[in-house]
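User: Could you write out the 3D structure of this protein bound to fe (iii) ion? I've included everything you need below.
Assistant: Certainly. Input first, then the structure.
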Amino acid sequence: MSSLLVDNIGELVTNGAGEGPLGIRRDAAVLVEEDRVAWVGPSAYAPAADHHIDAGGAAVLPGFVDSHAHLVFAGDRAAEFAARMAGEPYTGGGIRTTVGATRAATDEELRATVRRLRGEALRQGTTTMEIKSGYGLTVADEARSLRIAAESSTETTFLGAHVVPAEYADRPDDYVGLVCGPMLAAAAPYAKWVDVFCERGAFDVDHARAILACGQAVGLGVRIHANQLGPGPGVQLGVELGAASVDHCTYLSDADIDALASNRIDCMCHEGLHTTTVATLLPGAEFSTRSPYPDARRLLDAGVTVALATDCNPGSSYTSSMPFCVALAVREMRMTPAEAVWAATAGGARALRRDDIGVLTPGARADLVVLDAPSHLHLAYRPGVPLIRQVIRNGVPQ
Ligand code: NIG
Ligand code: FE
């Protein structure tokens, strides 16, 4: 069995036992055996190992868990971004542009984009990345999108209900029938989750409920794009269906917050009580669409479990950077640096219903990030600076 010791860690964020909400341990070391954390303790008492990384007093965190990304697409929408920065609103209408480009692309072109973005994210500390379909919107194009996504991640999401494609514009019921029937059947073997864009201009609450229920019936977990562009029923639908996560949450009513907050369970893990349905906030989307940011403080103060993710996609948020999202969350959404780092690691894990990632405790997957900084605070304090010195994924230095 091969082992790796990371020692001389000035600040270790465990998200487990330790100081404060991040479970911080000082002057610590982590022993990795194969792909798992085998031991965490004081650096002075660290056991010997086959391989050794001296963190030199730097901070070490669990790898980021990006629980919301759309990586299977072709082309870009830089001109749409420029038009927005000149005053155009974001409506989601550009999704159909990307659908056209994606359908016209070869498998190899789509695969190259997924690999490029996955690599970009990894270099910025993301060790787990969810990948959605949603730019194919035919049976064959959704199935191939998920087949390609599954080559890079086990966290794959069927988003055939991203928008109603142009050829079904005047018969949305027929499109919902296609999504729930042959498209789901072709996609499900490659998907772990089902998702719907529940929004005015995309899918209404009845269509969204029907599609999510069909996905659930074939064993997929539920997540939902909700309340991004305006108030709506999406968040409460997500809670009703026991979704792992409701994503965006930009426009929330008191009833939405209550629905999320009242749905608490005791997970017997470090943080004890948490909400069944996580609110995943995607500040890259508000940044890139020049929209008001979600009120993270309101969710956190109500006791809702919050995750942060990139929403990486060519339209509303073309960033693969979790450190950038952490900095935005702190600066623009009134999260403390500790809350933002927790949400980008353990929070993302909760949103994917995973307890083996987002933490650095014995038995967890050995996904570690060594910062070029003495503390997690620097992720928000030094925005835009490449602070990821080394990434270890599945026990393997990258
Ligand atoms: O999560 N809101 C829907 N889907 C994506 C945007 C997709 C696009 O604009 O291409 C999102 O923001
Ligand atoms: Fe999204």
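The pocket of N-(iminomethyl)-L-glutamic acid (ligand 1) is lined by residues 92, 94-95, 98, 197, 225, 228, 285, 311, 313-317 (CB under 6 Å).
User: Perfect, thank you.
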